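The authors assume throughout that readers already know how a fold can be written as discrete tokens. Each protein is reduced to its one-letter sequence and a matching series of backbone shape codes. I therefore recommend that a typical entry be quoted early in the introduction. For illustration, here is how one protein appears when written out as sequence plus structure tokens:
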Amino acid sequence: MKLLDTLHRWTGGLIGLVLAMLGLSGTILLYEHLWIGVPGTGDALRSDLATVAATTEKLMAMPGAQGIIYADERFRLHQLRFGEGAGAYASQSGEIATRWASQWERPELWIFDFHHHLFAGDSGEWVIGVAGLCGLFFVISGVILWWRTRRTFQLRLWPKRLSRPSILMHHRDLGIVVAPLLLISIVTGTMMIFRPFALGMVAPFGPVAETAKALEPPKYRGGPLAEKPDYTAMLTEARRRFPDAEFRILSLPRKAGDPISLRMKQPDEWLPNGRSTLAFDAATGEVLGARDALKLPPGAQAFNKAFPIHASKVGGWAWRILLTISGLAMAMLGSLAVWTFWFRRPKAAKHPAKKTALASI
């Protein structure tokens, strides 16, 4: 138990600040649709094919346009994507509401980048993944260590004093209360970073090999991007194949030969941007392939539910409030753990000098 206690303290001391910042930034992102503050977010949602097709043709004709994230019930503006982090919000009729040349001009974008990449791309994802695994150990070991002191439990939202004993008692007792929420947040977040971990978590739903194969994006080859792709024809074909689905993300090819990709969300899908996809030949607009997310193996469908749970895209306000508690608790527990470990460490006990006995002759 002493070894577990030492590992728990060192885990908190070394990784606690990262977990605290992830908890705080994640909590802020839960409410981004409320504070972005761009005109048009309250417009009525227009998802009919004619309107979406006309707007798509208009927006994608803009120089440098690389794709669109379509408006939905939560955020009723289209997000147009350009290169190098540039973008724009546009109304559902195709009028530009605001533009930016870099993600640093939009707080919702750089906070998202920090929460997902720590501003460091793939390297940052690895750091977050390791922090997630450490956080998982932190929660499990904390529950085990709490059990031996369970009789002194006292729930406080804030330490009684900012002394080391009070902070440790608060850390222990608040931690056990929010442990289930922290476990859900950490597990679902880590699943999106480390695929082997995710496959292990969804293994009870089906064969791992089958799930892994289903999660791999299909590869298609087509011709070079046409000068004026017929987006209306593509959207019409997509609506024919998935008549009840919402248009979510349109993406141009990243390199020659790649298809134009369209993601759609069917009513029974949890993911806000869906996983039902169509691939169109960039040269001709012909359908190269389509994938129905609701027909994926059970393991893949279980994996696709991790992000909606993690980001409160399901469950309404009740679940969002619980995740808010989880995020704020993680921020508090992580930051106080680092502070007590590095700046409030117990002082070494001072042993009185041994008196030298004088021998008498």
